[in-house]
TrEMBL record:
InterPro entries, per the entry: Transp_IS110-like_N, Transpos_IS110, Transposase_20
Listed name of the protein: IS110 family transposase
Sequence intervals crossing the membrane: none
Transposase IS116/IS110/IS902 C-terminal domain location: 210-287
Source organism, top-level taxon: Bacteria
Positions of the Transposase IS110-like N-terminal domain: 7-146
Source organism per UniProt: Pseudotabrizicola sediminis
Length: 340
């Protein structure tokens, strides 16, 4: 009797497409399912591989389907696209997902738990509020610049704007003053919410997060992002593999035995990459002002390379160091920049 070995599932909001195949690839099932029918249909199938693209709601369905006894495999959408034959539709997508998941060298995404998704939501909510606060500050700076008052960029200088707005010298028209106070209240409210989320993230900090913060350039937010968004470190054989996963290694254009390396690939998890680069820029700026330890890798790089290039290279080293600490369960033993 023919038995399904793998089911490719094309996810959507209400209508799902299933493609079931035997171990040799022969098609057994092509079926459209409603949201209410999906779990009932899968509960009637023998335990098999159920593959989906790692997209919205995939982790929710992955947990639910895993409880039915199936092996769940989530695939990055970019790895599925080459397997789509000619026209793109739900049926072709489901078939491509099943075919991609059956490849022995395919890379998969781990199914996240509810706790991990809650931590991701906390981080993303904080990121949204920070961006809204930045937008509001810039709007206030722009409006006051129209009135002849200029302040530097950044939340640290909002006090200068507040002093102008709340001043009694009559320098601002009453209508402008009232509207500017609305923006000031909005900035204060957003800052309070960001501070609350920062405290919440620190409260949830695990031993691993505290260990990562011992690395120069990695603070509590970056450490929380690494533990939240990064897959288990056991899947990486070496630190460079993790650095490549977050897009901090050069893009290759190699052929015929000749290596051609370009800029960073910028592939993988962009939140971790962005935070690592921001932290590295802070370390490079501090070293440029105060001076890096003599003979260190950072000092030698700053002597012969542009600062931004050094920052990206340092972010790569920070990623590899984070991998090492998480794999070995150790703290960063040398706070100064290590020599090569």
């Amino acid at each position: 009797m023919n038995e399904v070995s793998i089911i490719g599932l094309d996810l959507a909001k209400n209508v799902f497409q299933a493609h079931g195949a035997e171990a040799d690839g022969s098609v057994l099932i092509r079926r459209k399912l409603s949201r209410a029918q999906l779990l009932k249909f899968l509960s009637e199938q023998p335990p098999c591989i159920v593959a989906m693209e790692a997209c919205a709601s995939a982790h929710h369905w992955g947990r639910a389907i895993g409880c039915l006894g199936h092996e769940v495999r989530l695939i990055p959408p970019a790895y599925v696209k080459p397997f789509v034959k000619r026209q793109k539709n739900d049926t072709a997508d489901a078939e491509a997902i099943a075919e991609a998941a059956s490849r022995p060298t395919m890379r998969f995404v781990a199914v996240k738990s509810e706790e991990q998704q809650a931590a991701m939501m906390a981080y993303r909510t904080r990121d949204l509020l920070v961006r809204q606060r930045t937008q509001t500050i810039n709007a206030l700076r722009a409006h006051l610049a129209e009135q002849g008052f200029v302040a530097p960029v950044g939340p640290a200088h909002v006090g200068r704007l507040a002093a102008v707005i709340n001043g009694d010298d009559g320098a601002l028209p009453a209508a402008v003053r009232d509207l500017a106070r609305l923006l000031l209240d909005q900035i204060a409210g957003l800052s309070e919410k960001v501070a609350d989320l920062d405290a919440e993230l620190r409260r949830r900090a695990s031993t691993t997060v505290r260990r990562l913060t011992t690395i120069p350039g990695i603070g509590p937010i970056t450490a929380a992002a690494i533990t939240t968004f990064a897959p288990p470190m056991e899947i990486f054989e070496k630190g460079r593999d993790f650095a490549a996963r977050v897009g901090l290694t050069p893009r290759q254009h190699s052929s015929g035995g000749k290596e051609r390396l370009g800029r960073t690939s910028k592939m993988g998890q962009r939140d971790i990459r962005r935070l690592l680069i921001v932290g590295a820029v802070a370390v490079v700026r501090w070293a440029a002002r105060k001076g890096a330890p003599e003979g260190s890798w950072l000092a030698r790089m700053l002597d012969r390379k542009p600062k931004m290039l050094v920052a990206v290279a340092l972010a790569n080293r920070m990623a590899r160091t984070a991998w090492a600490l998480m794999r070995r369960g150790e703290d960063y033993r040398d706070p100064a920049m290590a020599t090569a």
